[in-house]
Amino acid sequence: MVLTFKNVNPENWSSSWKNSKQPRKQRKYLINAPKHIRRKIIVSQLSKELRNLLKIRNLPVIVGDYVKILRGKFRNKEGYVIYVDTKYYRVYVDSAQITKKNGETIHYPIHHSKIQILKLNLTDKKRIEIIKRKNPNLTEKEINELLKMSITKKEDLKKVYDLNKTFK
Questions:
Q1: Which pLDDT value is given to residue 150?
Q2: By CB atoms within 10 Å of each CB, which of 11, 47, 77, 95 scores lowest?
C-alpha cells in the first residue's frame, strides 16, 4: 500500500496521533510525518547473531547495510541497501531488480519491515553511539567484536555509494 494524500502538510503534524487506536489517525501519522520522524520509523530487525551480541531487536536502516529480504518475490536474496526512500517508506536493495518491458532493469522497492539486517554499516560514528545509547551495558570487547563482524569490503561500499548517487 502506497501512502499518499493530496493535502500532505508536515506543519499540520502531531505526535499525539500515534497514541490513537483509529487506523485513519495511524495512516495520518505516517503520511504527514516530517523527515526526521520518518527516518526513525524506517527500522528493520537484526539477525539472530547481531541480536544476541547487541541485545537490541532493531535499528534504523541506512545505505550500506547488508540485508536479507524475508518476503515477496525476492525472498531469501541478500544484498546491500543502495537507497532509503523516506517518502514512501521503502528500501532499495542491489540484488532486487526487475526488467521492464522495454528491457531496462530497475531496482524494486521493498518495505522496511520485510528485510533483516545481517551486517551493519558502521562507517558512521553516530551509529555506534546509537547502539551504545540503546544498550548502555555493552562492553568495549563486545563493540570490538561487532566491528569485526560488521566489516564490509571498502570496494563493496564504494559500489553501493556510487549506485546511491546514480539512484537519485
A1: 76
A2: 11
Strand pairing report for 43-46 and 58-60: antiparallel
* Domain range list for the chain: 43-167
Contact partners, residue 144, CB within 8 Å, separation at least 6: none
CA distance 160 to 80: 7
Residue type, 101: K
Q: Return the HEC string of 141-152.
A: HHHHHHHHHCCC
Predicted TM-score (pTM) of this structure: 0.86
Q: pLDDT tens across 70-116, in order?
A: 999 999 999 999 999 999 999 999 999 999 999 999 999 999 999 99
Reported as type and span, the H/E element at residue 88 is: none
Residue 1 pLDDT exceeds 60? no
CB 63 within 8 A of CB 121: yes
What fold, for 43-167? SH3 type barrels. (2.30.30)
| DSSP run (H or E) holding 92 | strand 90-99
Q: Rounded CA gap, 124 and 130, in Å? A: 10
Q: Which three cell numbers stand for residue 74?
A: 525476492
